[in-house]
Design a protein that fits this description.
Elements: E1 2-3, E2 6-7, E3 15-18, E4 23-26, H1 29-39, H2 46-57, H3 59-80, H4 84-91, E5 93-100, E6 115-124, E7 128-131, H5 133-136, E8 139-145, E9 153-161, E10 166-171, E11 184-185, E12 195-200, E13 209-222, E14 228-235, E15 246-249, E16 252-260, E17 268-272, H6 273-282, E18 297-300, H7 304-310, E19 319-323, E20 335-339, E21 342-343, E22 349-352, E23 356-359, H8 364-367, E24 372-379, E25 382-389, E26 409-411, E27 414-418, H9 421-426, H10 431-436, H11 440-443, E28 457-458, E29 479-483, E30 486-487, H12 491-500, E31 505-510, E32 518-521, H13 522-536, H14 547-551
Parallel strand pairs: 11-16
Antiparallel strand pairs: 1-2, 3-4, 5-6, 5-8, 6-7, 7-10, 8-9, 9-10, 12-13, 12-15, 13-14, 14-17, 15-16, 16-17, 18-19, 19-20, 20-21, 20-24, 22-23, 24-25, 26-27, 27-28, 28-29, 29-30, 29-31, 31-32
Helix pairs in contact: 2-3
Length: 552
């Protein structure tokens, strides 16, 4: 008969622990082992423990314990060796070397010095290598080194999704794939608590690294403030260089490493294969569109007073529209209670196959067709089905570079460039100063364009040294408002205004409280341009997209 304390015959059994001078009783087997370990200097010493077991339990029971332990060792032994499928998994993982030239936002006529970095990737079907977009962003050269090899293969990017941080690489020499098979991508969510392996080439060594951990969370969340998608949290060590490497559950890839948390130990983030498969489907037509999403203003429908105000019954759940444009199919106080056939609860969550609950936005890219997604709303007590237009990103006056280099125009001692979202993000470090100056970079950060093609045009750096600037001062990142009284629409429009300017003088007016209005002799300013370009060693007065406008 098996008892909690051990085997028993007709009554409780007494266990004994080895003390410094003898034995003392203990009612629990585990505490006996702990006490014995403590008395033996923190470790169970083999000979002492064996003698202890013989004295207390008898040779027959001890023999049974030893045989059981030996049997367990035999059962566990295969896990100590590398399985054949492990080698196949590892052969699909590569190390990626990149040389990148990042844009120089403050000096847009040039690029930053080349930087070298490494990351990881994994071979997938179609003779392609999957990695993170940030591993290959602005890369001028890409080299791919396979597992247990010193050879490096030239590669180039064939598709990139910066919002969701994914990219595909193609190799010039496709014979590489003859000996490096594709890893299989799982089409199922892993269970929370599943044991997984992150494989890649983190910093600190050249050899392949394998770290083990568990899946601790899967949620639908923001990736970069614009893109939303599924994100998986794993409790395993992820370091720089792991980026782009696969995470395996068994012999299938369940995600791609893209981020770790420097301030937290053994916590990292993974892009689930659900997002990867959507990316691969998106690029089948040769271009990447991105995951559409809703940009409506919504709030939860949990508050009792709010529910009473809207006349909602207890079984009517969803999210409340708090604001809507005049031309929107949604109206203020609509309750969005269903997306497709999926009910939305009062916190905006929906049930997903596998026992998961995600924000309802998870279904938007999956259910959207021809730029619209079908919703059901409760409006004035009635159920209404409607098709809501969705898009990949909101229209913003400050657009991202998205892998391009900034446009620019140099005129006299000034360089002009549009305010890209990357420049606005960099300017956040001096946000309070810009706010004090009433700089539009802060005031219009989330604005949509007031008209098609609108850009904020800024001086990203101080004047070039030249006598024409005598006595003039400008604040930080001054935004150009007008030239000779004409409001500047964008950088191309500025080029037209400068090209067509007439009269003896030219006037530049800037937005904000601390910027002076600049007046120059127009002919002297044009002459100064050539001198400044020559002195600074700048090849061209404008970027390739702006130069033809100046030359018309």
């Amino acid at each position: 008969m098996r008892g909690r304390g051990g085997w028993r015959r007709g009554g409780p059994v007494r266990r004994w622990s080895a003390g410094g001078r003898g034995l003392w009783p203990c009612d629990d087997d585990s505490s006996g082992r702990v006490a014995a370990r403590d008395r033996l200097g923190g470790r169970m010493r083999g000979r002492v423990v064996a003698r202890f077991l013989i004295e207390v339990e008898g040779p027959r029971l001890m023999l049974g314990r030893l045989l059981l332990g030996f049997s367990l060792l035999l059962v566990a032994a295969p896990s100590l060796a590398t399985r054949p499928e492990d080698e196949a998994d590892r052969a699909s993982v590569v190390k990626i070397f990149t040389t990148a030239r990042m844009p120089n936002l403050s000096q847009p006529w040039t690029r930053r010095a080349p930087t070298e970095a490494t990351g990881s990737g994994v071979v997938i079907s179609g003779n392609r290598i999957l990695t993170n977009s940030h591993v290959v962003n602005y890369a001028k050269r890409i080299l791919v080194q396979p597992y247990q090899s010193s050879e490096k293969y030239e590669g180039h990017v064939i598709a990139i999704a910066r919002g969701i941080d994914l990219a595909l690489i193609e190799l010039e020499d496709e014979s590489f794939f003859d000996t490096h098979p594709a890893a299989e991508l799982s089409d199922e969510f892993p269970r929370i608590g599943s044991t997984v392996q992150a494989i890649g080439y983190p910093m600190g060594g050249d050899a392949l690294s394998v770290t083990e951990g568990i899946v601790s969370r899967i949620e639908f969340t923001d990736y970069n403030g614009v893109t939303r998608g599924l994100r998986m949290q794993v409790d395993t060590a992820l370091n720089p260089g792991n980026s782009g490497g696969p995470v395996f559950l068994g012999d299938k890839v369940i995600g791609l490493v893209f981020s770790g948390i420097p301030s937290a130990e053994n916590i990292g983030y993974v892009i689930p294969t659900d997002e990867i498969l959507m990316f691969l489907e998106d690029i089948e037509d040769g271009s990447y569109e991105g995951n559409p999403r809703m940009f409506s203003r919504l709030q939860t429908a949990e508050n009792p007073a709010l529910r009473e105000r809207l006349g909602l019954s207890s079984d009517q759940t969803g999210l409340v529209v708090t604001d809507a444009d005049e031309d929107s199919v949604l109206k203020e106080w609509d309750l969005i209670d269903r997306i497709g056939d999926h009910d939305i609860d009062n916190r905006g969550m929906v049930d997903v196959e596998g026992g998961f609950r995600f924000h309802f936005g998870y279904y938007v890219p999956k259910l959207a067709h021809d730029g619209v997604v079908t919703l059901t709303v409760i409006r004035d007590g009635e159920s209404v089905e409607l098709d809501l237009p969705v898009k990949v990103r909101p229209d913003r006056v400050m657009e991202p570079l998205d892998g391009a280099y900034p446009s620019y125009l140099i005129h006299g001692p000034m360089v002009f460039t549009p305010v890209y979202s990357e420049l606005a993000q960099a300017a956040a470090r001096v946000g309070p100063a810009l706010a004090f100056q009433k700089n539009p970079i802060v005031e219009r950060l989330s604005d949509e364009p007031a008209f098609e093609g609108e850009q904020l045009v800024v001086l990203p750096s101080p004047f070039f040294p030249h006598r024409t600037t005598k006595g003039y001062q400008l604040g930080l990142l001054p935004v150009l408002e007008s030239v000779n009284g004409v409001k500047v629409k964008n950088l191309a429009h500025l080029a037209e205004l400068l090209r067509d300017a007439e009269g003896e003088f030219i006037e530049f007016k800037f937005a904000g409280m601390t910027n002076e209005t600049l007046v120059f002799d127009r002919a002297q300013l044009e002459e100064a341009t050539e001198d400044i370009l020559d002195d600074a060693g700048i090849r061209s007065e404008a970027s390739d997209d702006i130069l033809p406008i100046l030359k018309k």
